[in-house]
Each structure stands twice: as structure tokens, then as C-alpha cells.
Amino acid sequence: MRNRGEHSTSTGGGIGAYLLHRAKPHLPPWLGVAGVGVAGSGAHLVWADSVGAGVGLTLSAVALTSATWWAGRETSPQRRLHSAITVASASAWVTAAALEGPLAGILPDTFLMGGVVLALSWNVRMALRTSDGAGEQSGDKGLLEKVGLAKAKIGRTQVEPNRVTAALSLPAGEQTNDDVARALVRIASALDLPQSAVRYQPDPDSVRRGELVIVPRDMLGETVEWEGPSLPGGSITDPLVIGQYDDGSPLVVWLPGDPEAGRNASHFLIAGGTGSGKGDAALNLQTEILSRKDVIFWLSDPKAFQDFRPLLPAYDWAVEGGAGTEAMVAALQQVIPARTGWLGKHSYRQWAPEAAQKQSDPAHSCRPDRTPCGCPGMPYMVAWMEEAANTLRALGDDAFTGIAQEARSAGVSLIVSLQRPSYDQMSTSTRASLPSVIALGCDPRDEGFSLPESVIDQGAHPGAWGNRKPGYCYVVSGGIAPERYASPGRTQQFTTRAVSLMETLAQWAVRNGATADPITAGAAKAAVGNAYTGRRTDTDETEQTAVPEQDDTIQTGTLLDPEDAAMDPEADLPAAQQGDDAPLFGQDTGRKPSPEEARELFARALDEFEEAGQMVVGPKDFMDWCDANGYSRPWVSARLRDAALEGRLQPTNQTGRWRIVPALTPA
User: Fold this and answer.
1) CATH number assigned to the domain comprising residue 180
2) I need a surface site. Which of 30, 86, 304, 633 has the fewest CB within 10 A?
3) Within this chain, do residues 111 and 181 fall inside the same structural domain, yes or no?
């Protein structure tokens, strides 16, 4: 058991050891002051009367100060200046003391006061080195050293709510922006953040400068439900709001071009794997488009409008796929040059909001005398190909190439949606014609199919989400600042509560939205006839559902089958012909029509397809007709070729498929 004396000794020793431990970091400046005094005194004993030594000591002081300034280039400006002043003051006193003596004149006072001030300044600097200052070293230089960017310099730093932007400069001749792109995932690891929270925007004018952007908190984690379009009744030229970025700012896109803003019209690719939220992204964009007053919308959806059925009345033309999609593609190929011609005749270099109005401006008149022509306006047009992989398999991987390349000048935006826009599904020419993209979560191996390589280098990685974060996306498009390309956003979610509002929006579009102009509708009907339906108005629906009034008496022929309507009930039956008495079973069929009658039957079959709105046909569509009339598939193929030579059919991009040329209607 310790006695009181031993306890006091132990306590006193502990306090002394603690104070010594705390004082040790502050001793070097004072030891330096003492060393300067010893050096000045010793130099006086050796070189007191030497003029050459004075010159040498002066030059040495200048050289030592310059070396200190050069060596401090990697440190902060404050430390560099502080070090240079300290070295210059010490070397100047040593030189003066060596020549005059340490006790001559004001040298003793200068040593005592100046030395104390310099030593205390370093002690104060060390005391003020708080956790923030330490964090500067460990969080900036220390962090960059860990990820292989030790020589990089961090310049101006801008701190915003939930966003830090720091200018980064790499050592000349040693590293480039590509080194930063490869280090982004390690920076995210060092900061314990998701990969998408760290991105790098290279300076377009330098290969070694850029901005490092860090978003520490994911503001997209909370789901935001769709509550309606952002600007009902606005123009399609106004921004379309489809969600928000991770810093809370709105995620917007544009479709038409704007010469004043330097923005071209946009075609969009929407890409995302199963469960990535591609359907909600489509609904966000479609509801924004359909809420604008100067646009018409064509939709092809092989999924039978599974996601879009509440909006069905709002589309100008909607088809489910197959022959309907083939007809829509054929119609687009005719509509685009017709619209381009109309815009050119009315002096529009590209579609503008004024083009959707009645042409009363002499500057946009199609008349030679430039008087107002009064032509009906031409609304903007959107052609949406949902689940386009099915269409590309049916029509070929370049089905949309010509459309995408020519549609911009016609005031048409093409939007292609599919899960995997790989080169085995879509031609490189078509992919190059769809530079704007909404890239949702996907397989990591498919990132390069969705986003440009430059955006991936900036830190965009939709493969990190997969199907675990529905609605998360990157958007690359004209009108969006390039530094935003690698910023993740999230679209709004559509739940069952949104169905009623979507139905209301569709009815609003029927009453207030634009209808197809005569040029667009005429070109579509000329290409595919009755297959183009156009949007039905309230008047059309009333006419369809109205029941015509009937007399109490039965009209002649009212109960007859339409096929028997031309028969004369008073005429004699035709005489028996060869083959009429052949047995029905176990033998060949009865009399076949003559070649002239067969051609007439085939022409009638084409008319029936046209009346039904099926404008793309092939041998497989005539199987039932062949069975009914006793003809083989090769015979039908031959008749299809004959009809093509006669101008009744036109070949499509798919082998064995023909588009019916609408028959002329008598005036």
C-alpha cells in the first residue's frame, strides 16, 4: 500500500510528464531561436573583420530564403509566406551579428523581441491547427495521396447545400484528366459514399484541369409521386419536367430546337433494364408532352398499352405492334418529307411555335406575292416507339435510321424505348441519330450502349443501380449543361392514385390539344389509308354511339347478309357447270375460278385488308383466304409481286412484307 508521500511524488511526476508531452510540439521554434543566437555569436568570432565573409553570408541568406520559397510551392500560400519570412529574418540577424557582434547596437533587442515573436507565431499557428485544418490536410492532400493524385492541387472550392465543387489541377506532363476518371471510385470509397456521389467535369480547354464534384447526401432516396403535369396548356417549346436531380434542382428536357439558345431538336433513347423504372420515366415524359397545346403524339406499343391505357384517348394515333407498327413506320416515312416541304414553303428553317398557328404573317406565307396565305398551322409531332426491340426485330435494325436522320427538320421528335440498345438490336447509324438519352439502371456491361464514354468517364454509372433503384437515371440532351450529364436524377413515380388524373389529362387533351394538320394527316392517309385513324373527337364518338332512327316497317334487304345484297331474288339459278357434282369429301375441290376471276378475288381481298386498316400484308396474312379459295402460298406470293408491279403494293424493309397503296377514291 502506497503512503501519502509516494502518492504525491507519483502525482507530481504524472503532471510533469503530461506538461512535457504537451510542450514538446511547441519546442522546435524556440530551439530554432536559440540556434540562431549561437550561430550568430560563433560566426562573429570567426568572420568579425572579414569583408568577403559578409558578402558570402548575405548571398547565403538570399539563397536560403529563395530556397525556402521554392520548397513551399506544394504547401498552402500562408505556410509558404510564413516560412519565407522566418528564414529571411533569421538569416539577416545571423549576418549582422557575424559582422558587428551579437551585442552591438540594437541586435540584442532585435534578437530577444524578434525571436520571441517568430517562435510564438509558430506556436500560435500550431495551436490554431484545429480539426478543420487537419481535415484540410487529410481530407484534401491526404485523400488525393491515397487515390494516386498526391501531386494534384485543389484550387477554388465552392460549397453549396449538399454539393461541393473543387477546382483540380494535375501536375503538368505527369497526369491527365483520365487519371482522375479512373480514381473516382477510389475517392468514393475513401469518403464512404456511393459511386454516383463523386464525379469529375474536365475542363474542355485543358487536359489536366477540371472540377471535382461531391454530393454527400442522396436526396433521391425519398420517392416523389406524380401530382400532375408541370405546365398544362403550355407550349411544347417550354421545358418538360420529368423529375429532379440529386441536389434537388428540377430535371428538365426539351424536344423542339431553339436557334437563339443554340439547341437542336432532340430525338430520345430511353434505355433501362427490367425493374429500372422505365415505364414511370415514359409516363413522366408522355404526360408532359400530352399536356401541351401544340403537339400531336403517335404511339406504337407492342404491350397493348399496358402502362399507357389511361392516356389512350389523347394520342393522335396509337397501334399495338405488328402490322400496325409497320404501317406507322411507313406513314412516318411519307409524313416527314411532306412536313419538311410545308415548313420550307412557309419560310421556316425549323419548326417554331408560330408554325402551329394559322399562317397570317406575310413572312411565313406560301404565296408568291407574300400576302398572308391563311394556311392551317402544323403542330409539333412526337413519334414514340415503345419496346422498340420487337419492332427492330420485325423491320430490321435500321428501321428508324432514315426517320431519325430526317425528322428534326420536319418538326418531329422520335423517341425509342427499349431495354438494351446494343449494336445487335440497333444499327450504329440509328444509335448515332439518337444522341439524347435517358439512361436508367442497367447491367454494368451495358453502360456503354446507353451513355457516351465521356459521360461514363465523368462518373456516371447506371450499372451501379441495376433494378435496385427504380427511376434513378442520367439524362444527356441538348439544353442541359454538360456538367449535369453525370449528375443522377430520379423520375416521379406513378401509382394507382395517378390513374384518375391521367384520364382527366387525356380528356383535356381531346378537348384542348392539337389535332393533325391537313399536310400530316393527308400524307399519312396517302401512305396507309384507313390504317391511320387520327384522334377521335367528342363529335366522332357521339356519331359512333348514336343509334339511327328506324321505321316500323322492315326495309327490303335489311335482313340480308351483305354478301347476298347484290343478288336478285327473282333471277333464275345458274345452269350446272362441270365439277359441280363432284363429292365434297375424299376428292379434289370443285370448280376453281378462272385466272381473271382469281385476280378479281385477290384484288377484293386487298380491298378488304385496306378497309380493315391493315396496310402491311404478306403471304401469311392470306392463309385463310388460300384455304377458302383453294390456292397455294406460292400462288399468293406471285400475285403479290404482280400487284407490286401494278402499283397496288410497295415493298417494305422486311422481306416478304408489302404495304398496300391506298386505292384512289372517286371524287
Assistant:
1) 3.30.1360
2) 304
3) no
Determine the Cα–Cα distance for residues 381 and 412; give it in Å rounded to an integer. Answer: 5
**489, 473 Cβ separation under 8 angstroms:** yes
Q: Are 419 and 503 in the same domain? A: yes
Query: Is residue 253 domain-shared with residue 181, that is, in the same domain?
Result: no
The cell for 529 is: 389509308
Residue 637 belongs to a domain with what CATH number? Answer: 1.10.10.10
For 345-382, write each residue's pLDDT tens digit.
999 999 999 999 999 999 999 998 889 999 999 999 99
Helical H runs in 242-374? 278-290, 323-345
**Helix orientation angle between 323-345 and 518-528, rounded to the nearest 10 degrees:** 140
Q: How far is CA 587 from the centre of its chain?
A: 66
**End residue of a domain, out of 528, 559, 577:** 528
- Domain residue limits at 596: 592-667
Q: What is the pTM of this model?
A: 0.64
Q: Does any domain span residue 231?
A: no
Distance CA 593, CA 600 (A): 10
Q: For the chain, how many structural domains are there in total?
A: 4
**Taking Cα atoms as reference points, which of 148, 145, 147, 41 lies closest to residue 96?**
41
**Buried b / exposed e along 298-324 (16+ C-beta atoms within 10 A):** bbbbbeebebbebbebbbbbbbebebb
Written as one letter, the residue type at 360 is S
Same domain, 277 and 325: yes
Residue 304 belongs to a domain: yes
Q: How does DSSP classify residue 491?
A: E
Q: How far apart are CA 602 and CA 606, in angstroms?
A: 6
pLDDT in tens, 614-635: 777 877 777 777 777 777 777 7
Judging by beta carbons within 10 Å of its beta carbon (0-12, 13-18, 19+), is residue 595 exposed, middle or buried?
A: exposed
CA angle 385-388-390, nearest 5°? 130
Residue 250 to residue 373: CA distance in whole angstroms: 41
pLDDT at position 314, please? 96
If residue 649 lies in a helix (H) or strand (E), which one and from where to where? strand 649-651
